[in-house]
Structures are given as structure tokens and as C-alpha cells.
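Thread: quick sanity check before group meeting

JM: Hey all, I'm pulling together slides for Thursday and realized we never actually wrote out the predicted structure for the chain we discussed last week. Dropping the sequence here so it's in one place. If anyone has concerns about the input, flag it before I start.
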Amino acid sequence: MSFSSDIKQELNKNSNLSNKEIVKNELIGYLISGNTNIVNSREIKFSTESDYNINRFSKLLSNLNINHKIDISGKSFIITVKIRDIDFVSMQNRQIYLPVEKDLKEENMKAIIRGAFMGSGSVNNPEKEYHLEVDLSNEKNLEEMVKILQRLGIRVKTFQFSIYMKEGEEISKFLALIGANKAVMQFEDIRIQKEMRGKVNRLVNCETANLNKTINASIQQIAAIKKLQETGKFKKLDDKLKEIAILRLENPDMPLIELGKLLKEPVGKSGVNYRLKKIMEIADEE
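JM (edit): ok, ran it. Output follows.
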């Protein structure tokens, strides 16, 4: 199953159906989702390929004693409800509208979001990329949904009639808000592993870059030393410069700080760097 299916399976098992007001608001979430249509001004049809999704919708309707029928068309399940049997929704011009967010209590807002996600939401497998999206039926519902989520501390972006988010932390907060606690744990586990892999990769890249830098510097230093040997200038170097030059020739890959420890009178990284730079300057002199 997909990650989205796992979440919807978990939410379908939630038994929070004793509070009729919360049930109604979750049902409203379904009804304002992008998979709901009003047909002939008499019926509401909701379609989905998810059996968990259709099962949850049917539970909500049955809990409120609302008559409905379920049909199958190809891979899709279709629930049909008479408009007259749903008297608690705001409807105009063959559109169902969300209640104004300022009139809703927190648990009712969460229920609407849960219903909308169940109705037309999806989450990518977090192993690949972070992306959560919920399609809504019209622009007004999109605007009200954004206000509700902002009020609950969740930032989203919009595209056409959809809300979406691509930040792992926001997606995790969204899943916790709708009650998908098991999915949150799975999502966070994957997110932590990805972050750790990212840190390791960055560390390896940094170490590789430092190693390349050391090797490139060493090549230049060795070339300068050999030039001095070929021109006879090497013999004219003072003892401290000769000593570090010989150590560099013997240890071409060694970091400066380690070279410094091999000197008769050890010095730090800056001391070694100063001496090697001096050698290179002498080599560059005409």
C-alpha cells in the first residue's frame, strides 16, 4: 500500500464517532473535497478508489442516520446522498461551503481537515520527497481551509483549488492534527533517518573537499621543493625550512598539523603553513 493508503486506513479505524457535532464536521470536510459533486441539484456524489476512504464516509453517514447508497464503477467507489437528507451544510449554486472558521471550535476544525484529507488528500512516500496535498471543491472553501490551518498553526501553500506543503515539519504537524499518530511516528522516523544520512553525506563531502585541498596544496609544495633542488637553491635554505621540506617530500598526503608534530621542535599548523609558504615564495623568485 502507499503511504497515503496507510494513513487513511489508520484514520478509518478511529472510533471517535460519539460526538455528533464532530461527526458532522468531518462529513463537511468530505463534502467540500475535490472528489464531491452535486448532480441535478438533488444528489451529492462522492467518488474514490480507496475502500478505507469510502468506508469511513459511510460510517459518518450511518452515524447520522443519513440514507446513502454505494456503487462501484470500474476501480471507483461512489457514494450517493440526497441533498435533502443533509440539512446542516451551507449550500448555494450547486456548491457546498465551509462554515466560517471563526465560528468553529478547535475539535470541529480538526474534524473538517480530517474529512477533507480523507476525501481528496494524499501524501508522498517520505522516503522519496515531502509533499502533502488536499484538493478542495471551490475557491471559497480553499480560502476558509487556509484560515483554519493558519489558526491551528500550520502553514500551507495553494495552487488552483488545492492546498499543499513540502516541509517535513509542517506535514508531520498536519498528520498529528488529524489524528494519524501512527503515521506521524513512521513519518518522523523516516525524516530523522533522512536528516542523519544528509548530515553524513555533508560530512563526507566536507572531508573529501578538505582532503582534496590538502592534496592540491601538497602537490604545489612538493613541486616548489623539487624546483629548489633542481636549481641548487635547496642547499641555501635554513635548517628549519629544509627539515619541513624533507618531511613534506616523505609525507605528501599528511595534513599540516601532523607534519608539525614530526619536527624536532614541534610547531602547530600555522607554523608549518608559514614555512611551506616561505619555501614556495623562494621557489617563485627569479
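AS: nice. The chain has two domains: 3-179, 195-284. The chain is about 55% helix and 15% strand.
JM: adding both to the slides.
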